[in-house]
Design brief:
This protein has 415 residues and is an alpha/beta fold. It has 2 domains: 6-168, Rossmann fold; 188-331, NAD(P)-binding Rossmann-like Domain (Rossmann fold, 3-Layer(aba) Sandwich). The chain has 14 helices and 12 strands. The protein has a 7-stranded mixed β-sheet. The protein starts with 5 loop residues before the first helix and ends with a helix. Bound molecules: nicotinamide-adenine-dinucleotide.
C-alpha cells in the first residue's frame, strides 16, 4: 500500500468503519467504490498560439442518496486517485450532514499560476463540454475547490447553458451572486469549520476566547476560518500559504494579512510578524490547528510534535492514518474533514435548492440553517464516537457509511 495515496487511505478508513459497523461483503461491493470515473483530454489554445493538452477527471463515487456533488480542483498534482478519494469523502460528508446528495469530484492536472485568465477560461469551457454527458442539476453538480473560484463557476454555468439553449444556474454551485449564487457561500466552508471548533471546544472544555490558533493555507477555507475564529476572541498566531508562513505571539490582524496577500501575492513578509515554514506552522504552540491546504501534511514524521488540542480539518485528507494513530494516542481531538469542512457543501446545497426553486433566501437564514446542520452533524458523530468507543475520524466514517448503506438497502440492487 502507498501510504500517501489518498484513495487507498479512503478505502482503508472505509474498511475500518465498515468492520466496526459489521457491514457485510455484499453491501461493501455496492457502496465502497466510485460508480463512475471519466478521464478527458482537454486541448487548449494557449496565448502564444500553441495547443497544449491537459488531462481532466470527473468521478462520481455515489448517487445512492441523490445527485453527485463536489468541487473541481486545478493543481499540478491532480490525478485520478486523488479525485477518486475526494469524491469518496464527499459521499460520506453529504450523508453525515443529511444532505440529499451523493459524492463527486473533478480536477484538471495543470498549473493555474502559470496560465493567463483567457487560457483558464478556454480550459474550463472545454473541460465542461468534455464532461457534459455525465453532469447536470439532477445528475452531478460541480463547485469550487483548490485554485478554482466563483469566476470559474460562472464560465462553467455559461458553457453548459449555451449548449442547452437556456440558463441552467443549478448546474454548478459557488457561482457569483449575479447568476444565482447564494449569499454566504463564500464563507460557508470556513463558517462550518469554526462552528465545529466551537462545538469541539465545548466538548473538551477549552475556552476559545482565551485560546490560540494556527491556520495552514490562506485561500477560501483558510483565510476565512482565520478571520471568523478571531472574531470569537481566539488569537490567530500563525498562518501560511504555498510560499511559507508567518507567526506573531501577539496574534495577527487577519484583515490586514488578507490585504497584504492581495497586494503581494503571499502572507510572507507581513510587517510585525516572523516568517516561518509550513512545517513549523503545523507544530507551533497553539490550542487549535486548522489545516486548510492540501492532503498528507500531518504524517508520522510530525504528528508527535503537534501541540494543538484540537485539529479541525478544513482541508480534505490532511492527516495520514499513521499520523492519526499518533494523534489519537496523544489525545488530540480531531474534527475530521468530512465533518469539519461540510459547511461548503451544505451551503452549496442551499444554493442548488434556491436555484431549482427560483426563490432566494436571506443571509441570516442561510447561516442559521448552516449552524443547525453543523450542530446536528457534530452531535451525531459524537454519539457514534461514544456508542462505539472509537476515534472521531472512524465515528464520522461510520455515520456516513451507515447512512449510505441504509439508503442502498431500501433502494435494493438493480436489476
Ligand atoms: P484555495 O485555492 O482558495 O486556497 C488554497 C490555499 O492553500 C492557498 O492559500 C495556497 O497558497 C495554499 N497552499 C497550496 N499549497 C500549499 C502548501 N503546500 N502549503 C501551505 N499552503 C498551501 O482552496 P480552498 O478552496 O481554500 O481549499 C483548501 C482546502 O479546503 C482543500 O483541501 C479543499 O478540498 C478544502 N475544501 C474547500 C471547500 C471550498 O468550499 N472551497 C470546501 C470543502 C473543503
Amino acid at each position: 500500500m502507498d501510504n500517501n495515496n489518498p484513495f487507498e487511505i479512503a478505502m482503508r478508513n472505509f474498511d475500518t468503519a465498515a468492520d466496526r459497523l459489521g457491514i457485510n461483503e455484499n453491501m461493501r461491493n455496492r457502496i465502497k467504490h466510485p460508480v463512475r470515473a471519466l478521464i478527458v483530454s482537454i486541448p487548449v489554445r494557449m496565448d502564444d498560439g500553441s495547443v497544449r493538452r491537459f488531462e481532466g477527471y470527473r468521478v462520481q463515487h455515489s448517487t445512492m442518496r441523490g445527485p453527485a456533488k463536489g468541487g473541481v480542483r486545478y493543481h499540478p498534482q491532480v490525478n485520478l486517485d486523488e479525485v477518486k478519494a475526494l469524491a469518496t469523502w464527499m459521499t460520506w460528508k453529504c450523508a453525515i450532514s443529511g444532505i440529499p446528495f451523493g459524492g463527486g469530484k473533478g480536477g484538471i492536472c495543470c498549473n493555474p499560476k502559470e496560465m493567463s485568465p483567457a487560457e483558464l477560461e478556454r480550459m474550463t469551457r472545454r473541460y465542461i463540454i468534455e464532461i457534459m454527458p455525465i453532469i447536470g442539476p439532477e445528475k452531478d453538480i460541480p463547485a469550487p475547490d483548490v485554485y478554482t473560484n466563483a469566476q470559474t463557476m460562472a464560465w462553467m454555468m455559461d458553457t453548459f447553458s449555451m449548449n442547452k439553449g437556456y440558463a441552467v444556474p443549478g448546474i454548478v454551485t459557488g457561482k457569483p451572486l449575479e447568476i444565482g449564487g447564494s449569499l454566504g457561500r463564500e464563507f460557508a466552508t470556513a463558517r462550518g469549520t469554526v462552528y465545529t471548533v466551537e462545538s469541539g471546544a465545548k466538548y473538551i472544555g477549552l475556552d476559545l476566547s482565551k485560546a490560540t490558533c494556527a491556520v495552514q493555507g490562506f485561500g477560501n477555507a483558510g483565510s476565512n476560518a482565520a478571520r471568523l475564529i478571531s472574531e470569537l476572541g481566539t488569537k490567530v498566531v500563525a498562518v501560511s500559504d504555498s510560499q511559507g508562513g508567518i507567526f506573531s505571539s501577539k496574534g495577527l490582524d487577519i484583515d490586514a494579512v488578507i490585504q497584504h496577500k492581495k497586494e503581494t501575492g503571499s502572507v510572507i513578509g507581513f510587517a510585525g510578524a516572523e516568517d516561518i515554514s509550513n512545517e513549523e506552522l503545523l507544530i507551533i504552540d497553539c490550542d487549535v490547528l486548522i489545516p486548510a491546504a492540501l492532503e498528507n501534511v500531518l504524517t508520522e514524521k510530525n504528528a508527535a510534535d503537534v501541540k494543538a488540542k484540537i485539529i479541525a480539518e478544513a482541508a480534505n485528507g490532511p492527516t495520514t492514518p499513521e499520523a492519526d494513530k499518533i494523534l489519537e494516542e496523544k489525545n488530540v481531538f480531531i474534527i475530521p474533514d468530512i465533518l469539519a469542512n461540510a459547511g461548503g457543501v451544505t451551503v452549496s446545497y442551499f444554493e442548488w435548492v434556491q436555484n431549482v426553486q427560483h426563490l432566494f433566501w436571506k443571509e441570516e437564514e442561510i447561516n442559521e440553517r448552516l449552524r443547525t446542520i453543523m450542530d446536528v452533524a457534530f452531535k451525531s458523530v459524537i454519539e457514534y464516537k461514544e456508542k462505539y468507543n472509537v476515534y472521531m475520524r472512524i465515528a464520522a466514517n461510520m455515520l456516513g457509511i451507515n447512512r449510505v448503506a441504509q439508503a442502498a438497502k431500501v433502494r435494493g440492487l438493480y436489476p
